[in-house]
Amino acid sequence: MQQKLDELVAEARLAIASCRTANDILNTKARYLGKKSVINELFCEIRNLPAEERSVFGQKINQARSQIEEALAIRNEEVKKDAWAKQTSAANIDLSMPASTLPRGGLHPLTLVRRQIEDVFVSMGFQIADGFDIEDDFHNFDALNTPADHPSRNLADTFYLENGMLLRTQTSTVQIRVMEKYPPPIRIISLGRCYRNDKPDPTHLPMFHQVEALVVDEGVSLADLTSTLQQFVRVMFGANVRSRIRPHYFPFTEPSAEMDISCVSCGGIGCRVCKYNGWIEMGGAGIVDPNVFEAVGIDSDRFTGFAFGLGIDRIAMLKYKFPDIRILLENDLRMLRQFKW
Amino acid sequence: MIISVNWLKNYVEIDVEIKELVHILTFSGIEVETVTELKALPPEVVTSRILSVEKIDGSDHLSLCLVDDGIATRQVVCGAHNCRSGLMAVLAKPGAILPEISIHPAKIRGIESDGMLCSEAELGISKDHDGIIELPEDTPLGIGVNEIMGLPDSILEVEITPNRPDLLGVMGIARDLSASMDKSLLIPEFDLAAASVSGKVTSVLKIANLVPELCPRYTARVIRGVRIAKSPQWLRERLVRAGLRPINNIVDITNFVMLETGHPLHAFDYDKLACPAGESIPQIIIRCAVDGEKVNALDERQYSLCSRDIVIADPQKAIAVAGVVGLCNSHIEDSTTCIVLESAAFNPQSIRRTAYFHKISTDSSYRFERGQAPESAEFASSRTAALILEIAGGTLCEGMLDDWQYPQTRKIIGIRPSRFDQVIGYRLESEQIKNHLCRLGLKFVKYATWVPGVIADPETLYCFHAEQMEQGITEFTENDKCVHSLYFETPPARVDLEREIDLIEELARLDGYDKPKKATPPALIMDMNAHLIKRRIEDLFVANGFYEVVNYSFTDEEDHFKLWNKSTAQELIRLKNPTNANQSVMRAGLIPGLLRNLQFNLDHGARDIALFELNKIYINDERGRICEPLRLAAVATGRSTPLQWQTVSPMYDIYRIKGVLTAVFEELGISPVESYYSARPFIVKDRAIDYIINDQAIACCGMLDPETAAAFGIDTVVLKQDVWVIDIDLELLISMAKDLSGIYQNIPKYPTVERDLAFIMDSNITYHDIVKTIQQVDPILIRKISVFDEYRGKQIAENARSIAIRLTIADDEKTLTDAAIENVIASVREKLIALWQVKMR
């Protein structure tokens, strides 16, 4: 009897050792422990034995049974581990092969800068207003305190259209458009294209981009202009860049100013970028001229305002260190691919 | 906190509707959370006297009563334990409709019952079902009970903010209302001095306050000879309406005064207090607990105290956890005859710690942890004593023991009317300031020039206008050195008033937050939707592999005519003084510029190119008006994904281009119809799709005509690449994208099932035809149809193709059975065969 059981266990061990998959394990288990297995048959014979032998006999079968079960459990673990090992085998894997990537595109550097400017000003409570590229004399000149015979009309060479309209020479036209339509308080920026009849050269194009800011409310002062400008410059160019304004002339602001920032390239020591004077000119600014308020029907006694206009192309050139403004409109993929932020 | 409007009316005249009252309270900072109306009882509910009570045979509790209702004598069956002869009770006569039942003449155990003697629960005024209502002996007979019961009434649940402990009593709320409604505050009158007294309190009780920093004031009175009983109806009513359970007259009165003044009180049984060793006068000791000191509280829990807790004790034992809960060893019982009445003030932080640490929250701890002024203790004590003498009888021991070691000095704060204007935005006249603040219990001290902070001595205040003020002038211009201010002494209960800005807040709140003239908000100039959509679409094109370009607004007229025929010439806007010929007209489309960019980059060696531009074009519309609409156009050629070593990188084709446009539409939640045709001459006819919405073309895509490409110097034959274009009317797109937020759809509870179908169909049948047919079979269960294979070739007929489709089926109501799924699939098969003669594979 014992011998018969030993043989059975040995046979089962062999069968278990040859199992390769989880399925093999299940089949082997059924063969040696299942309903039709020898072990099960032996169990059924117990009741035919004399009472005193039953217990010893039963113990022996159970012993054999648990030996087989144990062997099955161990092999099951081995089979599982083998399968995982196969799945994670490092054979024929060269991890240095390039990644599988999705296509990627990118925004134009002018759009990247434009978005950054929009976000800085929106964070300071400005709204973004739209304007027209094609304007009339009134909005580009007259309403901006530049009557027909005014010498400053010569300052910019204006593109005229055959229909008598013109291409705006600065985004200040939006000031008029907004003030005509909305009462103060006004706190807007407007970004867009401007046009001047210039020959393209490394720093000029007949079409360029400006951001215009306009704030009109009670108690707005030159101090608000400088603090807004300083905040903008810090976010755009970094905490170390300083800004300043110095007296200038524009027909639509009084007092008028030009704005400089300390050179982003040399920090103000003097270099080629700043033409060795430490400062870079950024654009025009000033307190809105009372005559401009008159033209749009805003009480110039009650309200004051400031405005400024900055060149976006110029900011992009400083930020990305373009040597020539014309590169921007070439749209060479080898340039476009360079910028992500 | 819960307050009864009837009770509130005792302290302030309320001549407005409840709705208006709720509004006034809420908008002066006391938010009313709920209003419960207690309706008047019907006229059939009257006062009555029980003439006789007779047990009914065979019942252990029912009695037959004869009741005088003032008009007649009625026979009523009653089951209440307190039903007795001579009792003044409340009778509901037949016809009375009560909240729970309607009263009819009835037979109970075969005995006629002509009405019902009522408990409070039966009248719907409390949950008390313990016996019938007992009215005072001297109640008039046969009258309606509404007046006695204080009905009708409105119960308000109000939220008291933590900065206003003074509002934790009905009087506090009445004071605030008196200020916001500009009415007088009616303070309850009593004359304790007139009460009969016997002996001095100092000769019967002593106080030892060992922790004056934790208990700034402790007062005690002794009243002898009180009769403990059930409280009178009106008192019980007050407590019940405020959500408290009546206990006995002494406890009820202390609770009543707490609800009235906000100041919690406690009563001890005098005879349970121990004397110090060798003395004969009991002593109350205010001390910190000993760590581990065990006490049995009135909430039937045992607490193990620690040294941070304050206890009220006698020389032998603690008798209360100070300001939090009383203990069983000293509380008022039916046998009590002599009481000690405690009215004190405790350190709020200490009470809060004790309540939090031991997880006990009582009406008392709730009030003390928010801060009760030591000054309030005296009024509360006197008021309680007077009520006890009136209701429970007894005689007062003369005087009040009062341990108050550091009484506070007066607190005087100034307010500048100009500052109010500056902070709140309108001018409030000095008289209005005085009126509002004095109604709140502040005392006006004087006008003087501005000094910040709390003023200790008003005599130091000075004003340049002293003379004018003596003549009664109170409004001054502030053009000289004198910043004209008003000085007020704050009431002790207002622990929250410490600075000028606190007074400004009081004034703004009482005068109404809606009072300041609204500052004009800035106009909405920015079109935020358009701004966000523009950015999202730019980002979407970037994510699909496109690079953005920026081109000139002006262009060569010839480039325009390479795409469009000469009849479009009147659209063009021409420059009068162009710099050169190739910048002579404003661009009427974005594609010419993009094709120039494409050619430039091809010339410089690039092969896989995808470019887009999102910007304005400039045209004369049909009526000759200048327009500057936003457009988006894109061109693409070569591989649509980067060169990969694992898989073949597909070239741009109509499906990939269509995919980009589909992504745009999906992003904005719009679904235009595809039209497989385009009127644009530069797109190859059978490689073109127009997207139509409301009869307008919102976008188009397709293959660029090789001849047009050649005109821009792009030789597609040599290149062996097709060029694809996309053109979107962005203005129309933005106007169509109206609802960008979306609404949450429940996640399906039941699993979805996928089934595949493959069939051969005639080549002239479109996929679109098939999809429409399948959708119609069961639009509810069939959720998604996708195609995963198409085959044309040797194994099937020349004018046919094989299509493999995957259906996603789901039911929101139940798990789909195999039979139900099979049913759907069979119907789909049948329909496809019947309509399109497909051959299933």
Return Rg of chain B in Å. 44 Å
State the end-to-end CA separation of chain A: 84 Å
Structural class by sheet pairing and helices of chain B: alpha+beta
Mean pLDDT of chain B: 92
Q: Could you give a short description of this structure?
A:
The complex is a heterodimer of chains A (341) and B (841). Chain A has 341 residues and is of the alpha+beta class.
Describe the structure.
The complex is a heterodimer of chains A (about 350) and B (about 850). Chain A has about 350 residues and is of the alpha+beta class. Chain A has helices at about 1-15, 20-35, 40-45, 50-85, 110-125, 135-140, 175-180, 220-235, 290-295, 310-320, 325-330, 335; strands at about 125-130, 135, 165, 185-195, 205-215, 245-250, 255-260, 280-290, 305-310. Chain A contains 12 helices and 9 strands. Helices cover about 40% and strands about 20% of the residues of chain A. In chain A, the strands form 2 sheets. Chain A has a 7-stranded mixed β-sheet, sandwiched between helices. In chain A, strands 2-3 form a two-stranded antiparallel ribbon. In chain A, a hairpin with a 2-residue loop joins strand 6 (about 245-250) and strand 7 (about 255-260). Chain B has about 850 residues and is an alpha+beta fold. Chain B has a 7-stranded mixed β-sheet, sandwiched between helices. In chain B, strands 11, 13, 14, 21, 22 and 23 form a 6-stranded mixed β-sheet that branches. A 5-stranded antiparallel β-sheet of chain B has the order 5-4-3-6-9, with no helix packed on it. In chain B, strand 18 and strand 19 (about 320) form a beta hairpin. In chain B, helix 6 (about 235-240) packs across helix 7 (about 250-260), helix 7 (about 250-260) packs antiparallel against helix 10 and helix 22 packs across helix 23 (about 820-835). Chain B is elongated. The relative contact order of chain B is 0.06. The model of chain B has no long low-confidence stretch (mean pLDDT about 90). The chains are: A alpha+beta (about 350), B alpha+beta (about 850). At the A-B interface, helix 5, strand 1, strand 4, helix 11 and helix 12 of A face helix 15, strand 28, helix 17 and strand 31 of B.
